[in-house]
Amino acid sequence: MLKLVSKKNGGFLLILVLGLALILAGCNSGSADKAENNADKPKTEEKQEQAVEFPTKKLTIVIPYGSGGGTDQVARMLAGIMKDDFGKPIICVNKTGGGGAVGLQYTADAEPDGHTIVLTTSNISTVKITGNSELTYKDFEPIIGVNFDSPALVVRSDSPWKTAEEFIAYAKENKVSIGTGSPGGLWHVGVIKLQKETEAKFNIVPSTTGGAKASVRLMGGHVDAIAIPPNEAMNGLESGEFRMLATMTPERVEAFPDIPTFKDLGYDVNIRSVRGFLAPKGTPSEIIKILHDKIKKAVEDQRYVDFIQKKASNIFYMNTAEYKKYLDQELKDYTQLIKDAGLAKE
Asked: Dihedrals φ, ψ of 61, to 5°?
């Protein structure tokens, strides 16, 4: 083909070929420089470019129980601490019923964008086996575990029982009424377990809105005793109108070191309900991370620490992976607990 080119045109063609070669070399050099620049680019800068915009509107914290209860108190305290750091308004809404199932379903049905989350208790592991819902933790995205509570046996201070042993001895011969939390919830299950362990006679009076209502019933003399966490009975305990007899905690409550556990008394009654935040299934992991970090910051705030101690509650932090692992085991354990209590509906 070169033989067809005349001497006259050959010089021009040579210049053209050389020019094209220089252009291509320049392009390749630019591509190489660009690749080299990208390789040297800090990974943190890449992550910033991929970061999601969150939050973009108000955050709704769903509380599956009534106002004044332990979950309500914890949710509102954390919301109050988080509000300045979050950058958008935070509102708490009570969605009660079904042992927490109504609030859980409300959250499960919400848009999975991180702007609606729920503060649940270990009832998330009981609502299905008790027939209140088809939901389990697997229908949500776990975010963080923030605290736990255990119920305590509490009576009025003007009652004839000064100790748990006196109360149990009386209940073996006479039926007594015990107010507690949601039907099928862990406080309810705890009373059933205590009844089986002691062979006492209890008329159990659960409340559809949680433990706070039980405290009001005891205050009004409508029940003989209540089995709810100390923080839900704190007003009566602080005023001297209530007397705590024993707790269902694995160890004695720090704020009440003189009050025995049922384990101390020889009864195998150990009930613990962990509170944690869940988001709707499908919420992006980047948003879960942001929520986790902001809630963790609030949990570590001294105001929250002081609040939990004052309420005789317990801080119990778990990160997202730990909380998910815990929920998986809890679902197995508490499903069996509900079966043992005779409350399973399958």
From this structure: -100, 115
What are the pLDDT digits (tens) for 114-133? 999 999 999 999 999 999 99
pTM above 0.90, yes or no: no
DSSP string of 218-266?
Answer: HHTTSSSEEEE-GGGSHHHHHHTSEEEEEE-SSS--TT-TTSPBTTTTT
Q: How sure is the predictor about 322, in pLDDT bands with cuts at 50, 70 and 90?
A: very high
DSSP secondary structure code for residue 119 in this structure: E
Distance in angstroms (rounded) separating the CA atoms of residues 99 and 53: 35
Q: CA–CA distance from 266 to each of 38, 92, 165, 222, 269 (Å)?
A: 67, 41, 11, 29, 9
Provide φ and ψ at 214, rounded to 5°. -65, -40
Sign of the torsion formed by the C-alpha atoms of 104, 107, 108 and 114: negative
Tokens found for residue 292: 């986790």
- The two beta strands, 225-228 and 176-179, are parallel
Longest Cα–Cα distance in the chain:
125
> Do 211 and 229 touch, CB atoms closer than 8 A?
yes
3-state helix, strand, coil split of the chain in percent (to 5) is 50, 20, 35
The structure tokens listed for 20 are: 């094209």
**Number of Cα atoms under 13 Å in the Cβ half of residue 299:** 20
Beta bridge partners, 145, equal 276, 318
Kindly compute the dihedral angle of the four CA atoms of residues 298, 301, 305, 311, in this order, to the nearest 10 degrees.
Answer: -50
pLDDT at 225 over 90: yes
Q: With contact defined as beta carbons under 8 Å apart, do 110 and 285 qualify?
A: no
Per-residue DSSP letter, 323: H
Give the DSSP letter of residue 175.
Answer: -
| Span 76-105, pLDDT tens digits | 999 999 998 999 999 999 999 988 999 999
By CB atoms closer than 10 A (0-12, 13-18, 19+), residue 149 is buried
